[in-house]
Amino acid sequence: MIANELVSNNGHLVIGGVDSIELTKKYGTPLYVFDVSEIRSQIRKFKSAFENNDLKYQISYASKAFAIKAIYQVMKQESVHIDVVSGGELYTALQAGFPSSKISFHGNNKTFEELVMAVKNHVGVIIIDNFYEIELLSRILKTDHEKINVMLRLTPGISAHTHKYDQTGQTDSKFGFDVGSGQADKAMKQVLDDPNMHLKGIHAHIGSQIFGTQGFTMLADKMVELAKHFQREFNYWPEVINLGGGFGISYTKDDDPISADEFIGKIANELKKACDNVPEVWIEPGRSIVAPAGYTLYTIGSRKDIPEKISYLSVDGGMGDNIRPALYQAKYEAVVANKMDQPLTQTVHIAGKYCESGDILIDQQRVPDTNPGDILAVLDTGAYGYSMAMNYNRNPRAAVVFVENGQDKLVVKRETYQDLTSLDLDY
User: Which top EC class applies here (predicted)?
Assistant: First the structure.
């Protein structure tokens, strides 16, 4: 959400009908705040887009973007699927009461213990990533006399136009069975020959933070081409084609994301053109569901002014709350939450408190005149902020608050110094 779309009241940023400054007084800073109505709205836009295009579909929330009990409970309320990528995410979802039948389990190196956990809890589908996993899963199913739905994750040779660490569909990737070398055919035969695995469909994911439709339409066309190949070679037609996620959002005014209606419309047209019997289509949005709903609130502290240089304005958090600027050179925008009605008078670096020169949350940000104690709100931090948070420099992780319809609720408590040493043992 860009700054001019924000809601303010008496100069204060309002989130989900709640005064952000009152939130900081109640819960402290740093503080992650999520507008739950925005999350629900985005999910419903995806659903509407599919229904407008008359496609069978499932929305599967990619929960690596933000995985806590409360968000899984929201997803349950919205009747969507989720995907998890670790035993920890799976455990959290189960603890939240999320139905296991609507869980997909991803990952390029699932452990034996994680697969046992998935089978024991009857997850809806395991998305198989490699030959070692086929062997492990086959052994577990045979030993435990269980059957399970699976999909094959394929590497179709399509690169997304995004940061190199966010590209996952090209041939040289750690993920999935390579199509060009014949790995996909070999995996297909092994799974179809296993009586305890039901091959529900095929999956591919080409990357993250993608703004154009071309990559998605190319992927849709490629997946139909592969489905036809598998039908010829193995007499197999998928029930599901899972096109992954990666739909971009607007972090700054320079970003120009496509709407759900636009990219799903293009995908639908491509699929209907390519085949008569279109399988059920799954997508796995994560960032695009939660990122725009998230804000991180900080208290402004020290300032460093250097002659003829941009000043440094420091806050009481930083890379421990949001590693993406340091890791990916990700860009964000911010506002001073208690001075929304004041003119922007200066450009500053927004610096974190961590003992790293690279701990810069925003390289250049326009702000009004500020004082220590003012509240800075960094926008669109709902994805990969809390989920990648850490205790570097022995800083406790921030609290998480959900707001909706003018009400606020603490959903993750702030860590304490005692929490930081709770697992330490004396030598």
Answer: lyase
